[in-house]
Amino acid sequence: MATPPSQAKTKSSQAKTKKRRPAADDPPTPGSNDPLLAELRETTTQRLAALLASNTNLLSDLGRLNTSGVDTGTVFGRALKRARGLETLVPPPPPPPEHRPRPVKCAASLHTSVIVDGAAVAFGFEPCGGDWRSPGHVPSQLPRIGTARDVAVACGWGFTVVVDAFGVARAGGRLPGLAPGSSLRPLLPKVRVLAVSAGAAHVLLADDQGRCWSGGDAGDGRLGRGGASELAIVEGVDDIKGVAAGACHSLAFTSKGTLYAWGLASDGRLGFTTEDASAPPTRVALEGVVDASAGKYHSLVVASEGVVFAFGDNSYGQLGLGHADDAWEPACVALPSSAVCVAAGASHSLVLLEDGDVVGFGSDAQGQLGGARVDDDESDSDSSDTDSTSSSSSSAADDEVWTPARVPGLCGKGVVAVAAGGAANSDAGHT
Q: How far apart are CA 342 and CA 362, in angstroms?
């Protein structure tokens, strides 16, 4: 019987693709019968295994990629090409403006971090925990992931959080889920972070979906939720644009300017009166909020048209109200001009004005206000309206400034950002 043309064509194709048996004089397949290549392959594998075993963070990250279905062999292949200069790293295009992180050029806590030429540097006490210190306490660049420029930093007690231009957040130090050391690990690998703030032992983040994330020490209700200390979404607040983490309390504001506060409620630092020692996320009676800062015991907020409100502890005059009474509700601070942003420390406050000058108020015991003092003319005009027990200004011999005063060394310098740090066991601070 004749074979149909279609079948004949198939058989012919199969015959053409049939593999030839290797001849005796054919060279060996790489890595198969060549003992030298086999030995090299084994020793190279052992050396790579030793390198991975010595870098537990990298080993953990590769494990996470593997369990997520990513071919780690491809990762090794690309890394080899880049190391040999055979593959050029082309950064992805920047995200649209509405999905770009909120810039934070400097931050302060027990240590300080700033953005210099697109890279986060840190100096001071244990920026990434006990195993990493900036040599000689001079600015040192923090470890990076990829080539994206860093745009925001946040400092906690023994940990640092950095966000790059693509919204990738990484952190290192004494924060639950992280280990003190020389590397910074991604916090939310699949989330684009737009805002970040760090408290004493917790961190707040806002993503491009308007969600607020919290993680770290859950004491005093500062996480705004129940559950574990790992990063999780704070329920009951949405459309979040900015966050501020204090020592034991938290603030967050929406794109429409609505402010929420939660955590330790003592001294009025949440901006409302409550009988609970700690409070869940609660709306504060303020509108048009565009910036916020949470200090150790008090809070500062910038509302529409650059108006600043303060509330909380006022033992050192850090509310700038001209008296020593605590404020349980937002109180307006009299300023010489409109404010751009604020920074609340342990016992002092800073305000960046629209003309680039900086004013400060509160404690200057460690020089954290840079010698800011109210002018004599202002002191004379205010003294008649102020009780003798609560000074409205400060003299050269006084360490407390009770109303906003310009910081001499920062005026006329074109300052673009401010940060106020504090101490763990005292109310000392730095700027």
A: 14
Is the Cα dihedral 320, 419, 234, 253 positive or negative? positive
Q: Which residue, 294, 223, 233, 283, is CA-closest to 258? A: 283
Q: What is the 3-state secondary structure (H, E, C) of 362-375?
A: EECCCCCCCCCCCC
**Integer Cα distance of 419 and 104 in angstroms:** 9
Structure token pair of residue 129: 């925990």
Biggest distance spanned by C-alpha atoms of the chain: 122
pLDDT in 10s for each residue of the chain, 431 residues: 454 544 444 444 444 445 555 555 555 455 556 777 777 788 778 888 788 777 776 777 777 777 777 787 787 777 777 777 665 555 556 667 767 777 788 777 788 888 888 888 888 777 766 654 555 467 778 777 767 888 999 988 888 899 998 888 988 887 766 555 556 788 888 889 999 999 999 999 999 999 999 999 999 999 999 878 889 999 999 999 999 999 999 999 999 999 999 999 999 999 998 877 778 899 999 999 999 999 999 999 999 999 999 999 999 999 999 999 999 999 999 999 999 999 999 999 999 999 999 999 999 888 888 877 776 444 444 433 434 333 334 443 478 899 999 998 888 888 888 888 877 677 777 77
Nearest residue to 204 via CA among 128, 114, 194, 276: 194
Q: Do the beta carbons of residue 252 and residue 242 sit within 8 Å?
A: yes
Q: Minimal CA–CA distance to 221: which of 269, 290, 174, 184?
A: 269
Whether the model clears a pTM of 0.85, i.e. scores above it, the answer is no
C-beta separation of 303 from 290 below 8 A: yes
- Give the orientation angle of helix 56-67 with respect to helix 72-83, to 10 degrees: 130
Tell me the DSSP string of 287-355.
Answer: -S--EEEE-SSEEEEEEGGGEEEEEE--TTSTT-SSS---EEEEEEEP-SS-EEEEEE-SSEEEEEETT
